[in-house]
Structure formats: structure tokens, C-alpha cells
TrEMBL record:
Name of the protein this chain belongs to: Uncharacterized protein
InterPro entries with a match to the protein in the record: DUF6196 (IPR045674)
Pfam families given in the database record: DUF6196 (PF19696)
Superkingdom classification of source: Bacteria
Length: 136
């Protein structure tokens, strides 16, 4: 069983070897019924998710509530637990929560995460991300 200390070392190292990309726009959710999917689906949506007969898509908004950024792990094999670890880290350091969605890109040989953070906390999040990335 992995210790908390080892997990911190493993995930910090994985993070320091990842690519982080902050998107320049703000985002927010649009919600609609299944019957409206063909009409309202935005091909530029960052994420699309269904809950029963309702859909939500995360789209660019001039005064959106979130700023989004991606983390690509570049083929690092073991990033198990990263989402919870990173969310807990930001909760402790900044007192904020995250929105998270995860995907896979076989052309980049690995998983990637997108995170949304409240727009009013983006400066502090960028500071923490830069600090984590510098730890090896």
C-alpha cells in the first residue's frame, strides 16, 4: 500500500513533468434538454456531459464564472489519485473547489485533465501551479 508521503512525491513529480496550459477565456455552463441537443450543441464547447435528459456544456462566456486549464501528463504511467490529490491541495492552500473533467489523447500518449477554477482565484491558482511545477 502506498503511503501518503510516497503519493505526494510521486504526484508532485508527475505534475512537474506535465504540460499545463491556461486557456485565455472564461467559461460557464449552458444547460438544455435532450430534445435540444442538435440545436444547442456548441462545437467549441470545452466539455459536454449528460445527466438523464439534461445536458450541460462548458462554453466560453464573456463574463463566465470559471477559468479553465489543462494538464497533459505526457505518457507518465502512474497518475492514479492525481485529481483528488490536486483538488485537496488547492482546497487546503486556497480554500477553493474545482470542476474537473478527464480525457485520453492517444496521439499524445496519455491522459489529460481539464480543471475549472473560480475566476476570482485564477492569480492564486497560477501561483500554486507554478510552485508545484518547480518541485522535482
Amino acid at each position: 500500500m502506498e503511503t501518503v508521503e510516497y503519493q505526494n512525491i510521486r504526484l508532485t513529480k508527475a505534475f512537474s513533468h506535465s504540460d499545463v496550459n491556461f486557456l485565455p477565456d472564461s467559461y460557464d455552463y449552458e444547460e438544455f434538454d435532450s430534445e435540444e441537443l442538435n440545436l444547442k450543441l456548441n462545437p467549441e464547447a470545452l466539455a459536454l456531459i449528460r445527466d438523464g435528459d439534461r445536458w450541460s456544456q462548458l462554453v466560453k462566456k464573456e463574463s463566465g464564472a470559471f477559468v479553465a486549464f489543462s494538464i497533459h501528463f505526457n505518457g507518465i504511467d502512474n497518475v492514479n489519485g492525481f485529481v483528488g490529490w490536486f483538488a485537496s491541495y488547492l482546497k487546503v492552500k486556497l480554500g477553493i473547489g474545482l470542476i474537473v473533467f478527464v480525457g485520453s489523447n492517444s496521439l499524445k500518449n496519455g491522459v489529460y485533465d481539464y480543471y475549472g477554477v473560480p475566476i476570482e482565484h485564477i492569480v492564486a491558482v497560477k501561483r500554486e501551479v507554478a510552485m508545484l511545477a518547480s518541485i522535482v
